[in-house]
Amino acid sequence: MAVDAVTAPFTTHEVTNQVPPLQDLDLFSTNVPLVEALEREGAGWARERCAEVGRAWGGEPLTTWAFQANEYPPKLRTHDRFGHRIDEVEYHPAYHQLMRLSSEQGLHALPWTSDRDGAHVARAAMYLTSGQAEAGHGCPITMTFAAVPALRHQPDLYEEWVPKLTAHAYDPELRAGKDSAKCGMAMTEKQGGSDVRANTTRAVPDGDGYRLTGHKWFCSAPMCDVFLVLAQTDEGLGCFLVPRVLPDGTRNTFRLQRLKDKLGNRSNASSEVEFDQTYGQLVGELGRGVPTIIEMVAHTRLDCVLGSAAGMRWAVANATWHAAHRAAFGKTLVDQPLMQNVLADLAVESEAATALAMRLARAYDEEDTALRRLATAVGKYWVCKRYPGLAFEAMECLGGNGYVEDSGMPRLYREAPVNSIWEGSGNVNALDVLRALAKQPATLEAYFAEVELAAGADARLDAFVAGLRDEFADLEAVEMRARRIVEKLALALQGSLLVRHAPPAVADAFCASRLAGDGGLNYGTLPAGVDARAIVERHTPAL
Ligand SMILES: Cc1cc2nc3c(=O)[nH]c(=O)nc-3n(C[C@H](O)[C@H](O)[C@H](O)COP(=O)(O)OP(=O)(O)OC[C@H]3O[C@@H](n4cnc5c(N)ncnc54)[C@H](O)[C@@H]3O)c2cc1C
To answer: Are 230 and 242 within one domain?
Structure first.
């Protein structure tokens, strides 16, 4: 056989009607609703910085690193070759690159290192941008960011650790005397997860600290340098800072039993850990462990909202991009009226999520504790719950290609549920809304004050808000109704934000479908008459 016949490419056809890859784009600047929200919520000064983040996370080598970090998940190494316990997790180098870049960009620290107004909003926009490219490594980035407010309860530990936690460096080695550090959290136990008061890990005083014995059922990013851990004492639950390496350089007891084999979030290790006379230092007051760690949880919940909004944006960007470049039945998909409806509906959901997330971030900047308290729980419940359904529908917009790993859509889909499950699952957040309303009624007034900034602008929103007020007139069976109440609170805030700030086409579609009941249960059921084309154009990345 002639050599040419063997080596020549085997070609039966030309490849046509396939979509160009959505790559090498600025994930921030091409996200128009986010760019607008950054200005509106008070961090216009960070625009170029966000664009830098957008360019870095939207191009190579980031795209490859994001794939690799998930394709080659972390491995547990309990012992070294000689049989000594080491309790380490080995990550693919790509994971370390992701951690390094997020650290250098200050995604874990900006509000604590900048004295500019709007630093939370700026960080939120950055997180909402990088989170589109890779979500798993965001777990330790978020926990490190969120630990800082909790450490304020213990000034000596704050002074010792916060400079390391906010350093723009990443050093994955476990050793004493490092200039930078990452922080995790360990609350959840087998016998009672959401119900942390059922924890059985015990802490007993010993010298200048405590010795902790017990277990944690979920402890993510176990290669962090330090953890905030809940444990029981004679005075009730306490919050303890547990370092992995002691000041003399020896290892603290932190036995990693196994890593969880998770649905998604695969670049991030989540472990089961045993404490056995493990050294810890008290953070805050004994018996006040929950209020202390709740400071951390409020900030991780903020990031659950931001992370979900990020995933939703990336899902919509891929769906609109695909539909703009693929034809079927003689027309580009985006020109098929029913596909326009699906894309516009998804885009409205994504824009509503971004608007809520960024307004919430401003409440953190302004230390608006009343609004922040309620809107965090409402946002955590609602935005995180909306993400999985949206990820599926966006995947379907890509047809069979969307179901294939190369498209990135399966990773988004697997990632989507976790933000609702961890940091307080759906019901727990819905009940937290009721708790906030019962204990701090001022939170509801602050919430309505924000919603009613749009009063009179859209009759559908006004009617919806009046109906929402009625929900609180009768508190009969309120726990049973909690999810419905929280949904309505979320929709009222999103409606108010879109009516005030989004283009009329987006606000109109939201009010018609989400507030006035003129939308169906699946995406793609916006009523005829909405300007779907304008909505889709706004949400299609322009390269
Ligand atoms: C990938 C991953 C990583 C994690 N990493 C960490 C970590 O690093 N540190 C950490 O501490 N935890 C971590 N967690 C644990 C997580 O925070 C918990 O799984 C979560 O808070 C739920 O607790 P649980 O699993 O014990 O479920 P449960 O508390 O048993 O809840 C089960 C279900 O019951 C519902 N429920 C609970 N109470 C009520 C009620 N009163 N009324 C109605 N419904 C109720 C919940 O909403 C939930 O749907 C992680 C979880 C996952 C999935």
So the answer is: yes
